[in-house]
Every structure is written in C-alpha cells, then in structure tokens.
Amino acid sequence: MAVCLVTGGAGFIGSHVAEHLLGMGQDVVVLDDLSGGFIENVPKNATFVEGSILNHKLIDELFQAHSFTYVYHLAAYAAEGLSHFIKRFNYENNLIGSVNLINASVNNDVKCMVFTSSIAVYGAGQVPMNEEMVPIPEDSYGIAKLAVEKELQISHEMFGLDYVIFRPHNVYGERQNIGDRYRNVVGIFMNQLLQGKPMTIFGDGTQKRAFSYINDVAPLIAASVDNAAARNQVFNIGADVPYSVNDLARIVAEAMGKPCRIDHLEARNEVKVAFSDHSKVQRIFGRREEVTLEAGIRATAEWVKTHGARESSIFEAIEVTRNLPPSWARVKKAMS
User: Who has the most CB within 10 Å: 20, 157, 181, 300?
Assistant: First the structure.
C-alpha cells in the first residue's frame, strides 16, 4: 500500500483525487489550510492535517512521520485574473509553497510528485494549446505555475525526483466552492442564480473556454503514478469542445431552472480564447468518453441546489489597485 499526500485535499479537485486514491486502496493524508476548502470535503477514511504548504517546518515533520510514497500537489490559489493584483500572495502560495514540497520530496525519497499546473502557462494566441508549444504566460498565476514545472524538471535531472504534470482547465463539478467570486465561472453563475441575481460576465461574453467536468479529470490524475509512460511528462487534461461564456450562461440557467439574466461588466485583461489539444494524454492513458457539458452542468446543479448558496468571499489583501476591474474595485472601496 502506497502512502499518498494530497495537498489541497479539502478543496474541489483535491478532495476528488483523494477519494479516488482511497478507492484504489492507497493510504491518504490530506493537508489543507481550509482557506478555500471545507472540512466536509475531506474523504472520511483520509487522515486530515490542517496546515499550510508555506509552513516548511510542518511539511518536513509530515514527510518524516509518514514516509510518503507519492505526493499529489493540488493546493493553489487559482485566480488568473486576480493574480495580477495579488502578486506577492500568488507567488508565496503557488510557487514558494510548491518549492517547500519539492524540497521535502527530494529529501525524503518520494517516488513521484504529481502536480496540477494550468493551461494559463500557454498565454494567448496558441489554440488549440499543445504540450510542444513554448509557454508564454500572460498573468502572474501562469508564471508561478510554469516556474513550478521548471523546478520539477530540474529536480528530476538533479536529484532523480520523478514527476507527472497536468495542465487542467476550467474544471467544474460537485464540491466546487461556489462562494468564490474570483474564479470558477460555473460556480459563480450558480451562486448568483440561487440568490436571484443576474449572472455577471466580463465583456461581451464571446470569450471561449472548454469546461471540464471533475469526473473526467480526477480519476486520471489519481492513477497517473501507475503509468510508467507518464513519468516526467506534461499533459493537457480536460474537455475538448470550447463554448462561449454566453453559451455557458444559458446552459447553467437552464440546469438551475432559472431565467437567463446576464449583466455584462467592463471587459478585463484576459485571454480571449483558450482550449487545449489532448492527443498526448489520450495516447498515453487511452481515449475516454467525456461527460457532455450539458450533463456535467446538470449534475453540478443538482449538487448545488441541495447544498444552497454560499456567501461570496471578498479578497481583502489586494496589493495593486491600479487597473483593478471596476466591479472588484467597488468591492475594495466598500471594504476600505
């Protein structure tokens, strides 16, 4: 039996990965600071440790106590647009915390580290994005994710630490934190509809993304360490078909049984079209039938309606206010 550490295991994707690992017969330790996750998300048979990946002393103690075989690193603050305005927070949580885990993995002979990066590393103008493209990230979040990828590659060459890197995109599904106003547009839309509010869209809504259902992503991440051909490789993972944000809003409203009311806000600085090619992951892991967007949204909507609306959290530690989107600036002004 392997002993697996799952960082961010009280969060959305992390809790699903932890659940699948337990189903595979693995021993699972979840590390999460509960800043964006919830204790009820942690699978009941996992060992839960509340703490931050920024606490390198805690990290070292955990690794020495549990002799982890594999590390699944999913803890992150994944808000691409907001990352421009929280650079210090972004790099501390998404880069320095990752380095703490890489150091401990090397020092404690971890066999493989699985890391969830992001298609944010590609930047704009490269669609469909494939793993052979030169990454040109356009936001601080993407830069941090790319830096961790490079650290893993160097650590493999220098110390022999194996890794598997996944670049998921726009993942949605049950256990998503619908109270986060800065990321995960599906959850934002559903939370707004539950509160009788219009769905807010930055710009004209023609920007396109491929939205990925959690059950198409988490099982593959969990099983990746058992695939020898996946070692020391980078994979795009997620849905193939892109949809406009306007189309997404209509599908979400229908699944929630609510009128499709949209409030278009001033456009923000973001990649206009982003979707990726998955031929590499299909070649190594095999082709799998995807859940359609309509079916995945319906399943998510049923979970959301059962659990109810969440109060939208406000990020209070904005570091740069210049060019902050007006809707976020209004929130910041009201808090000051």
Answer: 300
> How far apart (Å, rounded) are the C-alpha atoms in residues 117 and 275?
15
Return all residues near 229 (Cβ < 8 A) that are at least 6 apart.
284
Least confident stretch, 20-29, 152-161, 264-273: 264-273
Query: Which residue would you say has higher pLDDT here, 315 or 223?
Result: 223
pLDDT at 190: 97
Per the listing, tokens 């839960």 go with 48
Quote the CA–CA distance of 65 and 164 in Å, as a whole number.
24
Q: For residue 177, with 0-12 CB atoms within 10 Å meaning exposed, 13-18 middle and 19 or more buried, which class applies?
A: middle
Q: Indicate the pTM of the whole model.
A: 0.93
The angle at the Cα of 215, spanning 214 to 221, to the nearest 5 degrees, equals: 85
* Res 317: pLDDT: 86
Q: Can you tell me the distance from the alpha carbon of 127 to that of 120, in angstroms, rounded to the nearest whole number? A: 12
List 32's β-bridge partners, or say none.
50
The answer to whether 25 and 3 have CB atoms below 8 angstroms apart is no
Crossing angle of helices 245-256 and 293-307, in 10° steps, is: 50
Token reading at 217: 């992503």
Query: Average pLDDT of 24-51?
Result: 96
